Amino acid sequence: MPDQVTNYTCPSCGGPLRFDPDTQKVVCDFCGSSFDPAEISAEFAAANQAAAEAGTALKESNDVLQWSDEEAAHMRAYSCPSCGAQLICDENTAATSCPYCGNPTVVPAQFDGALRPDYIIPFRLKKEEAVKKLSQFYRGKPLLPSAFRANNHIEEIKGVYVPFWLYDGQAAAELSYHATKVHTHSTSDEHITVTEHYQVDRKGTVRFKMVPADASSKMPDEMMDAIEPFNYQDLTPFDMSYLPGYLADKYDVSSEEDAERADTRMKNSALSAISATVIGYSSAIPEVERVHIKPERVHYAFMPVWMLSTKWDDQIYLFAMNGQTGKFIGDLPVDMTKFWLYFLGITVFMAAVMYVVLFLVL
Question: 326-336: per-residue pLDDT in tens?
Answer without folding.
Answer: 999 988 766 55
